[in-house]
Amino acid sequence: MHPYINIGFVEIPSYGVMLAIAFIVSLVIASKRAEKEGIEPNLILDLAFWVAFFGILGGRLYFVVEHFNYYLQKPWEVFYLWQGGLGIYGALVLGFTAGVFYLKRKGLPFLKVADIAFSVLPIGQGIGRIGCFLAGCCYGSYCEYPIGVIFRDPRSLAPIGVRIWPTQLFESALCFLIFIYLSFVFNKSKKDGEIMFLYFILYGFVRFVVEFFRGDPRTYLGLISTPQFFSILFIIIGIAGLIFINRKTKNG
Q1: What is the DSSP letter of 188?
Q2: C-alpha–C-alpha distance, residues 198 and 16, integer Å
């Protein structure tokens, strides 16, 4: 829609700007929640940088593998992060792994810190998806209804002059709703790990549904897209995790 933001004579990629805003907002909220839980906010700051670094790396690797034929022809564009192109599940897996190693090294309670992180992740995703919309990546399929949007900037990654579903905004709005709900759960009495597993279920469902409206190149595993496969996997893990912590609580 607006892939670049003009500041004087300087053009800044809007996707990068929104990612920066997403990181800052998420970090500020996470730090406040960490302090409330008796965890040193500076440790959350260190954790955030490690998770963000490996998350971006994992997200990019996932996206490149998913669009392998394209990047095989234009390998230099692998490094064009300002154009968008981060696969959330790749980011989650590698960022999560980095977080586990960091928490183990620092001796921090894993589930408690994970709940803090996953309680703020949806607001970061919601802001990030606005960046996707501005850049034109992660666009929707053809839409014949008035709700559809038309991209006109030739530098946009979305098809130009075609009415398509605003999938980025759908996911953004739903991520904000997940954030509101998880914040409500976080602020009441909860079991350690509950937020993380609820996130797996809620975001897995959201992404599974939004995938039906996506129009950018997809890879498929049978009848479902690769992100839908990971969505189902995350939902199963989330349900199993909630059952486990509930049984653990009942058994004392």
Answers
A1: S
A2: 29
Mark out the alpha helices in the chain (DSSP H runs).
14-36, 41-66, 68-73, 88-106, 110-135, 167-186, 194-210, 226-250
Banded model confidence at residue 252, pLDDT cuts 50, 70, 90: low
Tell me, what DSSP letter sits at residue 247? H
CA–CA gap between residue 239 and residue 62 (Å, rounded): 25
- For residues 115 and 1, the model is more confident at 115
Rounded Cα distance between 208 and 180, Å, is 20
Domain span at residue 135 reads 4-187
CB contact at 8 A, 108 and 43: yes
Between 248 and 131, the more confident residue is 131
Q: Which of 63, 73, 85, 66 is nearest to 221 (CA)?
A: 66
Cβ atoms 56, 91 nearer than 8 A = yes
> pLDDT of 98-146, one tens digit each?
999 999 998 999 999 999 999 999 999 999 999 999 999 999 999 999 9
Q: Looking at the domain assignment, is residue 204 inside a domain?
A: no
CA distance 84 to 22: 14
Based on the structure, what is the number of domains in the chain? 1
Please, which residues have CB within 8 angstroms of residue 25's CB and are 6 or more apart in sequence?
123, 124, 127
251 within a domain of the structure (yes/no):
no
User: Using 50, 70 and 90 to split pLDDT, how confident is the model at 84?
Assistant: low
In a domain, 85, yes or no: yes
Is residue 221 one of the residues assigned to a domain?
Answer: no
